Amino acid sequence: MSNSCATRLVVVSNRLPISLSRQEGRWTVTAGSGGLVTALAPVLMNRGGLWIGWAGAAADAELAPLLEDFSRDAGYDLRPVFLDEKDIAGYYHGFSNEIVWPLFHDLPSRCNFQPDYWRSYLDVNLRFAEATARHSRPSDYIWVHDYHLMHMAFVLRNMGVERQCGFFLHIPFPPPDIFLKLPWRGKIIRALLEYDLVGFQTLRDRRNFVACMEALVPGIRVAGRGNIVSIAWKNRQIRVGSFPISIDFNSFAGLATDREVVRRAEEIREALRHRRIILGVDRMDYTKGIPERLRAIRQLFLSHPELQEKMTFVQIAVPSREEIPEYSALKNEIEQLVGEINGQFTRPGWSPIHYQYRNLPRSELTAYYRAADMALVTPLRDGMNLVAKEYCAANVMESGVLFLSEFAGAATQLQKVGAVLVNPYDVEGTAKAIRRACFMDGRERRARMGRLRDSVRRNNIYWWVDSFLQAAFSRHLDDFPQETVDFRKPAYE
Ligand code: GDG
Known about the structure:
Elements: E1 9-15, E2 18-23, E3 26-31, H1 35-47, E4 50-54, H2 63-74, E5 77-81, H3 85-104, H4 115-135, E6 141-145, H5 152-158, E7 164-168, H6 176-179, H7 185-192, E8 197-200, H8 203-216, E9 221-223, E10 228-233, E11 236-242, H9 249-256, H10 259-271, E12 276-283, H11 290-303, E13 311-318, H12 325-345, E14 353-357, H13 362-371, E15 374-377, H14 386-394, E16 401-405, H15 410-414, E17 420-422, H16 427-438, H17 442-458, H18 461-473
Parallel strand pairs: 1-4, 1-6, 4-5, 6-7, 7-8, 8-11, 12-13, 12-15, 13-14, 15-16, 16-17
Antiparallel strand pairs: 2-3, 9-10, 10-11
Helix pairs in contact: 3-4, 4-5, 7-8, 9-14, 10-13, 11-12, 11-16, 13-14
The structure holds GDP-alpha-D-glucose.
GDP-alpha-D-glucose binds at residues 33-36, 38-39, 170-171, 245, 281, 283, 316, 318, 359-360, 362, 365, 382-387, 390.
């Protein structure tokens, strides 16, 4: 870790890294799942700090001692922001997930540009800023995460609260022809300029952001090239960079060799009668390309009947945003497709698709990663996609094949080192790629997976945090490498 660690880190995100449930009148708290939690929990655990976010419930006095217990075990403090149903409808389901999420994933036709959503977004960003002002000190570094809180630094500054603030966007940033459709485009871009550092997943996202800024903010000046550029605006310097997020490689690789996980992976393989397993793991979300993937599987068995009864596709879909109508419609579409495809091909003792709609414990998920011969990671657009990296980390036998969408941020890093790239909209092309992989020479598979694992091992979650914080604290732009940020191997491997 860099020297920057002397400053306390305050992470602010929409959700605290926990999941709350109430059974028989009593709350229980468990560690949450999802991309952001998976990425940041190990970092704060290692260094200590503070996490501010929505607890996932309305204010309740019974929660305070539970959060304290959780903090003690987790090794960092939690400070909840409480939201009521109106906030959740307007700010979370509304502005964040019915406007920003589809728009930033290049799907403007799915947007619901309701003006009330915007007012709720501003109001909740104000509440997050107030909580941050209350719980942080001037010497802290405030690291704000994701599209729910793009306005937070702007509000803090208007409140007269001086803090060093960085922002990281976990989802893609769209090009100007898409972004300019947003009715509040100028306000959002200017609000982002109130951060000291704005981080994106890929160079493409960073370039899109700069292009939107140039279109919307007269008088800004951009200096530098490569991963990190500097922007001069209103007597301030703002840094903008690309920092591809990653995973705790050792934790996944270690879990994959745990005796119970190895046993469970073998059990899964036996239950599927040692047929080749192709795996898909996603939140149930229309950006993840699950229907297109199912159509590619149907195409595979149609075009190559010899592969029937030889392969099984396992799709794990984690429930997500079930209150939004688009998501329940997607679930129906997927379940209908699974039914159709299984109806078409199932034979005694074999079904082509095993579909699970639930959240699996991490050890069970890792057992699936370990058991799978191939992983089909085919989002229509994705900021990064951690499942692709987790699959590689857990593939300790180095014999698996990773199929990766050209439109996942992870493709920028992993295409060079062995992922098989596919266009998720090209159902026939994806089916052909899977068939080719069935006949891929064992040496080639091992060489590809070996390179993929080396890349994820090197560019892991600690490297990601380090490169973001280095950009946050370094004084000179020249300190940054201008091409890949593959600057050192972490000492803890
Ligand atoms: C956003 C961006 C970006 C999935 N199923 C289970 C489970 N998971 C965990 C995986 C993985 C995470 O959820 C999903 O992460 P992704 O990166 O694939 O996708 P998003 O949730 O959309 O995340 C994305 C990410 O933020 C980080 O910046 O990569 O582009 O959209 O970690 O392991 N975990 C458990 N059981 C499951 O069934 N325990």
